[in-house]
Write a structure and sequence with these properties.
This protein is an alpha/beta fold. Helices cover about 25% and strands about 25% of the residues.
Length: about 240
Amino acid sequence: MEIRCIGTGTMGSTTRGNQSILVDDILFDIGSGVVKKIEAMQIYTKSIKYLVITHVHADHFVDLPNYLIGRSIRKENSQTLPIICGKGVKEKAIKLFELCFGDGNKDKYNNFEEKYNVQFIELEDGQSYSNNRIKLTAYDLEHGGCKPILGYTLEKEGKVVGYATDTTLCENVEKICQKCDIAFLDATNTIPTKSHMGLDEVIELSKKYPKCKIYAVHRSDYVHSHIKEINFPEDEQIIKL
């Protein structure tokens, strides 16, 4: 597998793009700026076969219209795009399109999935989407009052990749670390807050689950060069697994 870090930052970061990774042809999160970033990296919509959304905050969700409309304009939508997400995300996606591109026609998005050739697959905690290539399992996380907020494990080619951003330390974060060969974890701040993990917690997870190689992502602009226990990827970095 090849993992490309599209963005590794928070909404407030001035040095990194909003959090997103591409695992082969599976894009995790599509927040503000992600579409232009993947285009600048010469990754195009036709090469992305699955879209995975953690939650509907702007820095993880609001580039969805740019992505789907661009895909349609370039006639790259002959293959149905599965959108793996939490309950209610389809409804919120349609509302986002109405807000951004509505023209007063109340029926414009009645057949949203057919119009953009997508399939929303809304999962709850512990549920999975799978086919003969991949298995994606959803895990409830804790991010203030945001519901749903999901982390995921991706099983592919005998390896397991974990993704848990925008969360405090909770039981499901530990489940992800326990299961994975590599995990991308929230490290927004150096200390924990009511909505995010802190670096010390991420370091402790790396010690507790040594078989899981942990990458600290969704980072604000702090200095981390003295920390050796975990990995700190940068935008556009490529990781082989």
